[in-house]
Amino acid sequence: MASISKRNGKYAVTYYEGDDRHPVMKSGLTASQAEKLRDKKNAEEKKWREQRKKAREKAKKQVVKAVSNNAGDNPTDATLEEYMEEFIEKYGTKHWGDSYYTSSRSRMINYVYPHFGQHKIVDITTQMIDTYYDFLIKECPLVANRGKQKGSDEGGHVTSAIVRDIHKVLRTAFNQARKWKYIRQNPFNDADLPEHKEEERPAFSPDEFEWILDYTDDPSDYERYTIHVALAIQYYCTTRGGEVGGLQWPDYNRTEKTLHIYKALDRVAKKNLNLPKLIIYYTFPIMNAYNKTVVVLKAPKTEATERFSKLNNLMIEKLDQLKKMQEEMIANIFGDDYQDNQLIICQPNGRPIMQEQLNRKFKDIIVEMRENGYKFTSVPEDKLDDVVFHSVRAASATKKMQVSNGNLKAVMRAGGWAEPDMVIRYSKAYDDDQVKIAQKMEEDYHKGGDAKPQQDAEELLRIIQDNPELLTKLLAAIKP
């Protein structure tokens, strides 16, 4: 850029010209002349640089287009890692909720960028993708994290479930790249995914789960009774763990016998708090300023999730009892130290109970019951450790399908599901159900014979007596 220097009471301006940008000095100027010339040459320099930049970008696109058969009308030489960061910033932040945003970006960082991120997106082919997926299944180790990762196996390699999750994100990203005209075709559309069979989540039958409700029904112990009420809400209202933890006393309408389910308790990364899809109703007080996450009450992921769950008299009794116990603890133990967040399911001091805490408490109860001689047969012995608090939702869906005679729409509404296939996925069939079906078919068969025609004749006679004009019309219709 141009600069001004002072010499012998006069001013000189040094600037650059030509394609080689050789320096030129003009001296003997007054201060005002020097400033005007400097500003003029700076404007010319800026214009020249912009023209050069456009020329370089045009040449780069021509080179990219020449070497790649998949370059679009607006080609880029971005690597997969560079493009995915752009895609997540421009697309993911607008369309993804906190959980999906966090898990998707983690999979990119852990499994995509280190092994596949160096390739330019215009050069990626379906064959390269198939080879990469094969590598993930056979060679790529799982990245260590807290708890058991979805799709993990004993050998420690990435499994088909994780590969499919990765593929879903990359396919969406490349569809967007095609819309942005970076590429002409999406190579992920034709990729060969590894075979994957969705494992059915183990869940207790309704009858066996009701044993657990009976076992935990102890109003003399606040913590035990709290998990009892949490399990009862999960069972009778077909809730999710976060929904149970997010319920507050204003959501309970004793007169209308309803629970308003419209928010969920969750832990959210502080850096994700500004995601547009994330609607937060309340942020709990931060206990440690160094934590990277905060506990919040947030809106559910879909509109179908919000619902008013009808309560039976049994649930009303349990909720009233829990409310009474909390009030007594505030009055007699905690006083002003009680953290009154208006939560229905909470710790003795009023703090929230996270889903992972509900999970641990539920598992402890199962272990305790087995030690006391209870034998659960609806879940195989080697699968009992896989039963979690969320599994109660399956027992609930199963029971409601049974008592409603398979009314999918009613069960969908009760559980906040948007699609009927989710009800089918959650509800279970047990051997006892098959026995009941066989018995019911036999009973219906024995009810047959002459009884049905006699009932039909009596019904027809009653209709004719109530509507004599129908007989006239019938006789007229059968005349030759």
From TrEMBL:
Where does the record place Basic residues bias? 49-60
Core-binding (CB) domain location: 78-178
Record has DNA-binding as a keyword: yes
What keywords tag this UniProt record?
DNA integration, DNA recombination, DNA-binding
Which residues fall in a compositionally biased region of kind Basic and acidic residues? 35-48
Record SUPFAM superfamilies = DNA breaking-rejoining enzymes
Q: Which stretches of sequence are listed as region Disordered?
A: 24-60
Residues forming the Tyr recombinase domain are 199-439
InterPro entries reported in the protein's UniProt record: CB, DNA_brk_join_enz, Integrase-like_cat_sf, Integrase_catalytic, Integrase_recombinase_N, Integrase_SAM-like_N
Q: Does the keyword DNA-binding apply?
A: yes
Its BP terms in the Gene Ontology are: DNA integration; DNA recombination
An annotated Gene Ontology molecular function:
DNA binding
Q: Which family does it belong to?
A: Belongs to the 'phage' integrase family.
What this chain does, per the entry, is described as: Site-specific tyrosine recombinase, which acts by catalyzing the cutting and rejoining of the recombining DNA molecules.
- This chain's protein is named Tyrosine-type recombinase/integrase
Please tell me the species this chain comes from: Candidatus Eisenbergiella merdavium
